[in-house]
Amino acid sequence: MLERTPDSSGKRRWFWPLRSKPKADTVFYEPYGDAIPPRIDEPIAPLKKPRGKWWWFSRGAAAALFVFILLVAYLAITAPLSKSLQPIVPPQITLLTTDGQPFARNGAVVDDPVEVAKLPDHVTEAFMAIEDRRFYSHWGIDPRGLARALWSNMSGSGMMQGGSTITQQLAKTTFLTPERSLTRKAREMLISFWLEAWLTKDEIFERYLSNVYFGDNVYGLRAASLHYYYRQPENLDLEQAIMLAGLVQAPSRLAPTRNPDLAAKRARLVKSAMVNAGYLTQDEADRLGTPRLDVRAKNALPTGTYFADWAMPQARALTDLSYESLTLTTTLDSRLQEIARRAIASAPLGQAQVALVAMRPDGEIVAMIGGRDYAKSAFNRVTQAKRQPGSTFKLFVWLAALRSGMDPDDKVDDSPITKGGYLPKNAGERYRGEISLKDAFARSSNVAAVRLFGQVGDRAVIREARNLGIKSPLAEDDPSLALGTSTMTLMELTAAYAGVAGNRWPVEPYAFKKDEQTWAEWLFDWPGRYKADTHADMEKLLRSAVNEGTGRRAMLSIPNFGKTGTSQNNRDALFVGYAGDGDDRLVVGVWIGNDDNTPLKGISGGSTPARIWKDFMQQAVQARKPASSRKPVVRPDPEGPVVPLDLPEIPDIPVNVGDTEVRINGDSGVRVGTEIGGVPVDLRIDGDGVAIERRREENPAEADR
């Protein structure tokens, strides 16, 4: 016998749940004799039974249930239920030019969601029979369906329906990636339970039918019924409903527009499933035929252009994700786009690629050519290609000089640089000694640019580039930056020139009309501006580059401003500038180069790019007549003699006759450049009389860098 003696202190003791209770003092007595325990105040505790399998199983099941509840709670808090209301792909957007001409369409064909209560019974029955006939009786997971699918796979009898329920399919398409893994399947099941807990069966079914893919880039039952049979889903007959229900398994392969035989074979399986589910009798199924398609093409538009590829992300950002197909008007001008296309098509490019972008001074893009042939290469050389800008970058060097207090008539040394680690050379190694900033810019002097860069400092030059919207990396403490060795896109560069054209920076290019700026936006988003004299001086430099310098082939008979650029080893040739006045002013950038960065042959910034720019501007700005909707204004006839607005006091004279160029300078008189018998000559008329001399053409291979 044994006695369990309690604690003599009489105090009640408390113990932690996981700690063992101290053992009581135990006194042993002889098992025989008259001896009895002196004191027994409590019954002897029964011996503990060993823990069996059921104990461990119950505890494990409880722990698993607890973890499952935590997972469901986590999903309920973090998983966005509203996502199941949205289409699983971006809806279709059609883009229009400014005059209403559609030119691109992108995205899936979607339509309004369906309501189960308004659909005929045979429509919902067809989908349930082939996809999930026990949909209204399970909790998101159908064990019988899984077992049936597994047995069909193992026995090789073929599957009339998949193992996934409609709820699982909605969970997979809406919330998960298409990867095939046990982890993804487990998450799919958890989300299915969650959907079943938060939504009614009809809501789950509606969202499934409104999202499922039916082939031919069509998503949702309403869009599919309109696409294949040109009728609303509420009006589908039994044969049509059966055909559509059969497409869900493999829509791309079973689409009746592509594989009518496979679609008909699948429809027969749906009929058999409806018979097995009790929705049809065998006689009714046998009498059903194959429905006739009624496809009315509405999407016979190209799905992409260079401009559309650039504008579409902006279109998505402007709209809420919904089932509605949208039609948006862009800033693309069909007239200007066609002019750009013709100007490039007539240019002697050889095997080189080309890009052109035209915008208003505020950044409104009106024309864009990203390459020679979109069908062969969708790579947009306006927005994606980062190339060296060459001497077009000198805009920022001269701006920094003007803002430091210098004047266009100030002198700069145009002699060879013989000392230092960087020894640039002028094109053709032609040097002129001390010349004005204006002449150095017009003739694109490399040594003058590097000397100016050294005077104002790299920070000042980079500051001007950043002010005008250049976001690409720019090398610091590198004098070659003055000659445009840091890469950037043509869009960036042209937008920077637009900032000068409108004296309002930085300029953000855009593809859709902007809303009127509110007073708060106007107050807190004040644009940068140059002082009037600084802006006038910069325009004087840009005008001299076209009328007197390397950009003479771009000269127009209206105000024109621009700069040529040719990168190292003739890998890139550019001309960027602007022309016109008021609402007609356009800023245009042209680039020519090879995608593999090999040197160009016979092309420089002052040759083919300048000619493309001129051809575009002559038709886009110079020859444009005022629109009837505008207020009447006094303008010269663009088809006849015009006034060179650079010097309005000079009488009207005819210019641009063929390839003839007229240059008027108040100091040196009138200089006419033309060809006689194929020989380029200059006719000079000044105070000394008339002189004719042969013009020395610049070697394209030695054009400005």
Q: What would you say about this model in short?
A:
This protein has 705 residues and is an alpha+beta fold.
Q: Would you spell out the secondary-structure blueprint of this structure?
A:
Blueprint: E1 2-5, E2 25-28, H1 53-78, E3 93-96, E4 102-106, H2 121-131, H3 143-155, H4 166-175, H5 182-198, H6 201-211, H7 221-229, H8 238-247, H9 251-254, H10 260-276, H11 282-287, H12 306-318, E5 326-329, H13 334-345, E6 353-359, E7 365-369, H14 394-403, E8 411-414, E9 433-436, H15 437-442, H16 446-456, H17 458-467, H18 490-502, H19 519-524, H20 532-547, E10 560-566, E11 572-579, E12 586-593, H21 608-622, E13 661-665, E14 669-676, E15 679-686, E16 689-694
Parallel strand pairs: 3-5
Antiparallel strand pairs: 1-2, 3-4, 6-7, 6-12, 8-9, 10-11, 11-12, 13-14, 14-15, 15-16
Helix pairs in contact: 1-5, 2-8, 2-10, 4-5, 4-6, 8-10, 13-21, 14-16, 14-17, 14-20
Quaternary class: single chain
Q: Give the N-terminus to C-terminus distance in angstroms.
A: 111 Å
Question: What is the typical, i.e. mean, pLDDT?
Answer: 81
Structural class: alpha+beta
Main β-sheet, spatial strand arrangement: 7-6-12-11-10
- What's the main sheet like? 5 strands, antiparallel
Number of helices: 21
| Estimated share of beta-strand residues | 5-15%
* pLDDT < 50 runs, ≥5 residues: 1-5, 14-18, 157-162, 628-659, 697-703
Binned, the helix content reads 25-40%
Indicate the overall shape.
elongated
How large, in whole angstroms, is the Cα Rg? 40 Å
| Count of β-strands | 16
Account of the 3D structure:
The chain has 705 residues and is an alpha+beta fold. It has 21 helices and 16 strands. It has helices spanning 53-78, 121-131, 143-155, 166-175, 182-198, 201-211, 221-229, 238-247, 251-254, 260-276, 282-287, 306-318, 334-345, 394-403, 437-442, 446-456, 458-467, 490-502, 519-524, 532-547, 608-622, and strands at 2-5, 25-28, 93-96, 102-106, 326-329, 353-359, 365-369, 411-414, 433-436, 560-566, 572-579, 586-593, 661-665, 669-676, 679-686, 689-694. A 5-stranded antiparallel sheet has the order 7-6-12-11-10, with helices on both faces. Strands 13-14-15-16 form a 4-stranded antiparallel sheet, with no helix packed on it. A hairpin with a 2-residue loop joins strand 14 and strand 15 (679-686). Helix 1 packs across helix 5, helix 14 (394-403) crosses helix 16 and helix 14 (394-403) crosses helix 17. The model is unreliable at 1-5, 14-18, 157-162, 628-659 and 697-703 (pLDDT under 50).
